[in-house]
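Quick one - inputs below.
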Amino acid sequence: GENVEQHPSTLSVQEGDSAVIKCTYSDSASNYFPWYKQELGKRPQLIIDIRSNVGEKKDQRIAVTLNKTAKHFSLHITETQPEDSAVYFCAALQGGSEKLVFGKGTKLTVNP
Amino acid sequence: GAVVSQHPSWVICKSGTSVKIECRSLDFQATTMFWYRQFPKQSLMLMATSNEGSKATYEQGVEKDKFLINHASLTLSTLTVTSAHPEDSSFYICSASGRASGGETQYFGPGTRLLVL
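Output:
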């Protein structure tokens, strides 16, 4: 089955800096990779996703890149703000399945 | 669009009682609903996948007689924790996906915090 590794587990940056979170996956049949943001006690919210026919996708300050050959994908947040502080989860859709396999999460702290 | 609600948001119950949690897709038809469990500071653990009108598929290690799932319509799935015990205390979150929501994209409910005394 699919296995998703996520790094780092914690990340602290200064406001205005960029933040990068990286994930690797094992199932070469995976073709959909969403990123979720979860604030304390709240639901995970989809912030961006990418499908395997695309190498990069951007939405304002957030971008995701995908390298299918290396089986890794990354989340990039530019010009970070304190409200970006949360736990971020990457996920990969298991090939031939409806199931998402999640990484262990990255706690991002943006210091004012 | 793609709003998922969950009820109740929190529940406290005595050991041995059963608790039912509802998950609803409000503005789209959810062909598939998922139930997750999340422990503090940990990731989402998939418990089961349910498709409307069919039996749920449980993940390995999840007792189907303990966690009863019903997906009676395209907008409602329920999770019943039977004979709850303190170790069942957790944050339970549902998610839903459907053609209108983007196919494989899952949208999450707000979660239900269960505390079993």
